[in-house]
Design a protein that fits this description.
By secondary structure, the protein is mostly beta strands. The chain is about 0% helix and about 45% strand. It contains no helices and 8 strands. The strands form 2 sheets. Strands 1-2-6-5 form a 4-stranded antiparallel beta sheet, with no helix packed on it. Strands 4-3-7-8 form a 4-stranded antiparallel beta sheet, with no helix packed on it. The protein is elongated and about 45 Å long. One of its GO terms (cellular component) is cytoplasm. It comes from Urocolius indicus. Its main location: cytoplasm. Keywords: Cytoplasm, Disulfide bond, Phosphoprotein.
Length: about 90
C-alpha cells in the first residue's frame, strides 16, 4: 500500500476583483493516485467552464474563472486525511 501523500506547500489567500481569475495552488509530498478534491465552502468543485482543476506531478491548481461576489469564501484542498484552506 502506498504511503499517503501530504501537503508540503499550503494554499495561500488570494484577493481578486470581480471578473478576474483567481489561482490557488498547493504541492504534495509525492504524486498520488489518491482522490484529491477542491471545495468552495462545503461544495466540491468540478472542472467545468467556471473552474479549471489541474494536477501536474505533485502540484495541484484550481483556477476560478471570472470570479463574482458569490465566489467569496473559503477554498480548501483535501487529499486523504490532509486539508489546506485559504
Amino acid at each position: 500500500k502506498e504511503p499517503a501523500a501530504t501537503i508540503v506547500e499550503m494554499l495561500k489567500d488570494v484577493t481578486s476583483y470581480e471578473g478576474e481569475d483567481a489561482l490557488f495552488e498547493c504541492k504534495l509530498s509525492r504524486e498520488t493516485a489518491q482522490d484529491a478534491q477542491w471545495f468552495l465552502g462545503d461544495v466540491p468543485l468540478q472542472s467545468n467552464e467556471m473552474n479549471e482543476i489541474r494536477a501536474q506531478g505533485t502540484r495541484h491548481s484550481l483556477i476560478l474563472k471570472k470570479v463574482t461576489l458569490e465566489d467569496t469564501g473559503p477554498i480548501s484542498f483535501k487529499v486523504g486525511q490532509h486539508t489546506s484552506a485559504a
